[in-house]
């Protein structure tokens, strides 16, 4: 969760990681790979983000704009939500820190021009102000309520060009069942094809899923510190990416041998000695000591 520090008190971010938010390295890498592969292949189109908070993900989307392309972000920022549940969500998670001007300051720390900003509930985009088939990438990360996310997915579908990609945040968190319901409903009744799952985001397309899969497999994710797994959902393949877990640090051989070979009394004495040393911060803790 972001800090509760008021936006006005925060200095301009020096690096992208200084912007509070929930956009972490794995999804940054996935967004970067998918967007830059689109650009390299000559795919053009606008980019749309529903739910930008203080700009952590919007700044990266802006990095990938090619000449003639437009980034539009839609967020309530400091406006009131339309309904009680959404207002409660805003009060609990964002109100203390979020203002439109803080978003703008963060964005302008990394880009010369602001994106197109729609300060409104995302339902305002259902009026067709985003031209149909105009986008190559849509990031949905606004309200977590089922009715809103279902509407946001409909907006994404209308906005995306044929092989465009949608990234849907929080599709599997315990506290966001409405997002899960809307996402899997779109898959099983709305023709959305899953291509990639990360711990935080679902990536899909209404276009050619096998082409996106091929693009994803071009990168050596393992070398970057990630795991790659393949699953099938209702007969269709999907990739999963996650962080590699580093193996726990091995006990040094001499310590392990001492603890295994010494008689119990000596081992207790050794543990006592190690505990004393540890209290003086001389050695790392022993498991179960
Ligand atoms: C999880 S944050 C977005 C995080 C951001 N994408 C990032 O990666 O740092 C969700 C954002 O959605 C906005 N939001 C919530 N409900 C909304 C609604 N109905 N319409 C528009 N924006 C909404 C909140 O103001 C908040 O900024």
Q: What spatial form do the alpha-carbon principal axes imply?
A: globular
How much helix is in the residues?
Answer: 25-40%
Ligand kinds:
S-adenosylmethionine
User: How many structural domains are formed by the residues?
Assistant: 2
Number of strands: 9
CATH architecture of the largest domain: 3-Layer(aba) Sandwich
Q: Structural class from helices and strands?
A: alpha/beta
What proportion of the residues form beta strands (DSSP E)? 15-25%
**Largest sheet features:** 9 strands, mixed
Low-confidence blocks of residues: 263-267, 279-289
Order of strands, widest sheet: 3-2-1-4-5-7-6-9-8
Q: Enter the CATH topology name of the largest domain.
A: Rossmann fold
One letter per element, helices H and strands E, the order comes to: HEHEHHEEHEHEEHEEHH
CATH class of the largest domain: Alpha Beta
> What integer is the average pLDDT?
88
The CATH superfamily label of the largest domain reads Vaccinia Virus protein VP39
Tell me the radius of gyration.
Answer: 24 Å
Q: What is the count of DSSP helices, taking H or I runs of 4+ residues?
A: 9
Distance between the termini: 34 Å
Oligomer: single chain
């Amino acid at each position: 969760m972001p800090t509760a520090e008021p936006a006005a008190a925060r200095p301009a971010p020096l690096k992208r990681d200084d912007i509070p938010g929930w956009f972490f390295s794995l999804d940054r890498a996935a967004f970067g790979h998918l967007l830059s592969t689109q650009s390299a292949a000559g795919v053009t189109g606008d980019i749309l983000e529903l739910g930008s908070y203080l700009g952590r993900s919007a700044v990266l989307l802006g990095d990938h704009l090619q000449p003639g392309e437009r980034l539009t972000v839609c967020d309530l920022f400091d406006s009131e939500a339309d309904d009680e549940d959404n207002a409660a969500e805003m009060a609990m998670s964002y109100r203390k820190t979020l203002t439109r001007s803080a978003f703008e300051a963060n964005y302008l720390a990394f880009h010369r021009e602001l994106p197109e900003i729609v300060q409104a509930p995302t339902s305002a985009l259902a009026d067709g102000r985003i031209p149909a088939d105009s986008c190559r990438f849509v990031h949905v990360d606004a309200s977590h309520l089922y009715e809103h996310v279902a509407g946001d997915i409909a907006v994404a579908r209308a906005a995306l060009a044929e092989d465009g990609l949608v990234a849907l945040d929080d599709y599997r968190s315990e506290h966001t069942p409405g997002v899960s319901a809307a996402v899997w409903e779109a898959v099983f009744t709305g023709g959305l094809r899953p291509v990639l799952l990360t711990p935080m985001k679902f990536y899909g397309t209404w276009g050619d899923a096998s082409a996106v899969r091929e693009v994803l497999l071009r990168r050596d994710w393992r070398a970057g510190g990630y795991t790659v797994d393949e699953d099938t959902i209702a007969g269709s393949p999907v990739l999963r990416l996650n962080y590699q877990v580093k193996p726990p640090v091995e006990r040094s051989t001499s310590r392990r041998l001492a603890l295994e070979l010494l008689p119990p009394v000596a081992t207790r004495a050794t543990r006592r000695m190690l505990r004393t040393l540890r209290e003086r911060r001389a050695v790392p803790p022993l498991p179960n000591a």
